[in-house]
Design brief:
The complex is a heterodimer of chains A (208) and B (393).
Chain A lengths: L5 H11 L6 H13 L2 H17 L1 E2 L6 E2 L5 H4 L4 E8 L2 H10 L4 E5 L17 H10 L4 E4 L5 H21 L5 E4 L15 H9 L7
Parallel strand pairs in A: 3-4, 3-5, 5-6
Antiparallel strand pairs in A: 1-2
Chain B lengths: L1 E10 L2 E7 L3 E6 L6 H13 L20 E10 L2 E10 L25 E5 L2 E3 L1 H4 L5 E4 L11 H15 L1 H27 L6 H37 L6 E6 L10 H22 L10 E6 L2 E2 H4 L2 H23 L4 E5 L7 H11 L4 E6 L7 H6 L1 E6 L2 E4 L1
Parallel strand pairs in B: 3-13, 3-14, 8-12, 12-13
Antiparallel strand pairs in B: 1-2, 1-4, 4-5, 5-6, 6-7, 9-10, 10-11, 14-15
Helix pairs in contact in B: 3-4, 4-5, 4-6, 5-6, 5-8
The chains are: A alpha/beta (208), B alpha/beta (393).
Chain lengths: 208, 393
Amino acid sequence: MSELAPPVAALIEEFSKLPGIGIKTAQRLTFYVLRSPADQARRLAEAILRVKESIIYCSRCFNITEHDPCSICQDPQRDRQLVCVVEEPLDVLALERTGAYKGLYHVLHGALSPLEGIGPDNLRIKELLERVRHEEIHEIVLATNPNFEGEYTANYLVSRLRELKSELAPRQLKITSLARGLPIGGDLEYADEGTLRRSIEGRLDLGA
Amino acid sequence: MHLVHLALTDFRNYRQLDLSLGPGLFLFCGENAQGKTNLLEAVSMIATSTSFHASADREVVNWYAPDHLARLDARIRRRDGELHVEIVIFDPTPPLLGSGEQATRPPHWPGGTQRKRIKINEVPRRALDLIGSMTNVLFAPADLHLVDGSPDERRRFIDRSLCQVRPRYCQALQQYRKIIMQRAALLKRIRDYHEDPRLLDYLDERLTLLATMIMFERERMLSALNELAAPFQEQLSGGREQLQIVYRPSFQPHPQHSLTEAQEHYLRQLHTVRQKEIQQGVCLLGPHRDDLEFLVNGMSVITYGSRGQQRTVALATKFAELAYMRAATGDEPVLLLDDVFSELDQRRREQLLQAILDHEQVLLTTTDASHFPPEVLERAYKFQVVNGQLHPW
């Protein structure tokens, strides 16, 4: 890349550091920026800067936000007795899109994985326990991912929350998790064994 | 069952291979490093979707493959019909060949390109679905050291056939290995960074649950294997020797062999070694530490047996494995023999040859065709392997 002007080479290098972007894509993006109007390039640069300068973590739920506390934590319509625990800010977005959840959130920013060196101290677990101690929370909904790391994290949280229960009396604390089962619009025969087993275990009483 | 056709593209040193097969004995003869084992590796990959000696799938992709893909395409004739299996393996980190200006840059592949794609009868499937489509028994020089080799070798022996016969076992074993890796990392973190030991509880529960399943299947397979191996040993030793294969699990088995209480029983054992595990930073108990012991006439072969006796026992055990696979699936597995004849003496060579000659399909590699009597050579399909190409002779 010795013939390339240094600014071009620098941008290619920066792009290629992004996740999922190899050297070829980085080159393509760089030349796209080079050919686009100056105005558009400025908007891109500003958007990148703004995201770093103005986005902070909410001091209560640790979701990403522009204002602390975040709009969900401030919303008076929300059920403050209900807190849903998720791994990532994108999970909040997914749950919000359903419109079915009216409580608050708590974002852990990851899941336990000893192999990757992620222990409880690397996640917002201490902060969650503090919230349960000091806020009028009556139910914790665990919504970690249904994979090994997610289940591991949920399991650890259950044991820590259980210890807390005696401290909270007479306040009751209910611990729930999202149901595991069949996707809507799916076909029973295409479901894998693990999912099917979980949905048999968690079958619904139709009250007939 | 047998392979009818095998086609390879950029698989190891085979840039392009198109091989028609059928029932019978196929002899692949060649110098070292010409691609004899690679051929058996490909066949084995059709059966299990993973390589028997590469540490990562991508290793099988030829370095000069223009698109960094290796393709395997096989037609298998089973008792219940024909099967078409296709596997495509993608190497996301191909080596840069040449240097400076001449360096060939990898072509662009979208992020998230699957590392391995499998189709069975033109329908995309998971690796787990492939298992059992074609069973095979591999006999490599390492198998001759089944008795005197490392425990790891003996576990690989059990796992290789059990995985092919029971996909559920394969799944449990994969999950178990992941737990062991996470758990070992956690033990070290507890020791070095004083991480919360309660983090072990969930892993212990998963470990023992999976261990219960794995040990149960191993126990069952070994009792079947025992019955099958005894007559082979008698025959190979001229009726003088009684062989017994004993399963030595690392967990103390439950006295009543109760499946429901077994997990509790293992959990208690884990608790007693917890401090020791943390000190050493390794998982000390579980199926990853199981072993087998071979007894001839009640005496341990590894302690009291001669080298020749150890070979005979290994041979009898492999014959039993073949019979086990046949009994468990109701079909003949494809038999792969990788250069084992050079390691055997004349008598055992003849015994082995006798045992395989009438098998449905045998793929055999050797550096020296002179090991084989003319009547065997006459009925075999013979190929010379030279630098990733096959030449019939």
